[in-house]
Design goal:
The chain is an all-beta fold and 333 residues long. The radius of gyration is 18 Å and the shape is globular. Helices cover 2% and strands 63% of the residues. Strands 2-1-14-15-16-17 form a six-stranded antiparallel beta sheet, with no helix packed on it. It has a four-stranded antiparallel beta sheet with strand order 5-4-3-30, with no helix packed on it. Strands 6-7-8-9 form a four-stranded antiparallel beta sheet, with no helix packed on it. The chain has a single domain, classed as Methylamine Dehydrogenase, Chain H (7 Propeller). A hairpin with a 2-residue loop joins β24 and β25.
């Protein structure tokens, strides 16, 4: 879906997925984009047709995708050597290195807004984001940034950072100011902002420390989505409905709508969710018991297999809907 921004200028990228809010308008052709990996190759698929971003010589991953007009923006990483990855960004297949390889780095989330490219990730285990390639470090602690969302002049980044007891806490930053969402351990994987409300999905650590429970927070107030081993990797808000996608040990890939779980009757994981009208899209991978991991997306619970390579994953999904108001959307960017 050509995601057209409302006047507030909302744009989001989950953990691994990018979300923004469409203006109501006539529907047209929808193109489904999924970013991920196929073996060692970072790639994306458009309506099931793959485009390689790397040549497979070095291990590489594409974690996030955002489409604006005819431009396809992807964030990820590629192995550089000496146990280091470089954070990378691709526009229409052309790569830009965000880091030089001297320190391990990763790019997990990308959003394009008003002619600017924002990418969130980490370098040397420090959460940061890049605006048009210029880095801003978010924390001096051991930390990671997993998702970025831009709303008007405000930049929101979700992730997790170590506290003084060396335990990770679910965290988000608004214009560099840190908000900690947990005090007993947790991870924030995705962020979505609607008006004045900030939604974050991830997981909280059970007090025993032996399990994680899928959770989302609205303005800092937690809602547990599962009581078993689970995590919520992506969040999307449409009107009054809150959607999250993730994994449970009991069900494999799942999504929740207002806390109600839907499973796909498959093994695997779900990493990204996107809602377009009445259609719910989820990407990840499907597998049988000890079987191959096949990059997959589900539309309204119906699966589409993207790859027959046994080590493929669909990390991020974006639905680009071509409408008669595309020109209006372009004028806002």
């Amino acid at each position: 879906m050509k995601r057209i921004f409302i006047i507030l200028g909302i744009a989001a990228c989950t953990f691994v997925s990018c979300n923004d809010v469409p203006i109501p308008g006539p529907k047209g052709t929808s193109n489904v984009y999924v970013a991920g990996r196929e073996g060692n190759v970072a790639k994306y698929w458009k309506n099931g047709v793959g485009t390689n971003l790397t040549n497979g010589v070095n291990d590489a991953r594409a974690y996030s995708i955002f489409v604006s007009g005819s431009d396809v923006h992807v964030a990820g990483s590629e192995y550089y050597g000496k146990n280091r990855y470089r954070a990378k960004y691709w526009k229409n297949g052309k790569a830009t290195n965000l880091t030089d390889g001297s320190k391990d780095a990763d790019a997990r989330s990308v959003v394009f807004f008003r002619s600017n490219v924002y990418v969130a990730g980490h370098e040397d285990h420090k959460a940061k984001y890049w605006k048009n390639g210029v880095a801003t470090t978010l924390s001096d602690a051991y930390s990671y940034a997993t998702s970025i969302f831009v709303s008007g002049p405000d930049v929101y980044v979700a992730g997790y950072a170590q506290d003084d007891d060396y335990q990770f806490q679910a965290t988000y930053w608004k214009n560099g100011v840190e908000t900690t969402l947990t005090d007993e351990g947790g991870y924030a994987h995705s962020i979505f902002v609607l008006g004045s409300d900030v939604y974050v999905s991830g997981a909280t650590t059970h007090p025993s420390g032996n399990s994680e429970y899928a959770t989302y927070w609205k303005n800092g107030v937690a809602t547990n989505l599962s009581v078993g081993l689970s995590s919520a990797y992506s969040i999307f808000v449409s009107g009054s409905d809150v959607y999250a996608a993730g994994y449970t040990a009991a069900n494999g890939p799942v999504y929740w709508k207002n806390g109600v779980l839907t499973s796909f009757d498959a093994g695997g994981w779900a990493y990204s969710i996107f809602v377009s009208g009445s259609d719910i899209y989820v990407s990840g991978y499907a597998s049988g018991f000890n079987g191959p991991h096949l990059a997959t997306y589900w539309k309204n619970d119906s699966p589409t297999t993207l790859s027959n390579v046994s080590t493929s994953i669909g990390h991020s999904i974006f639905v680009h809907e071509i409408t008669s108001v595309d020109s209006y959307a372009n004028s806002l960017e």
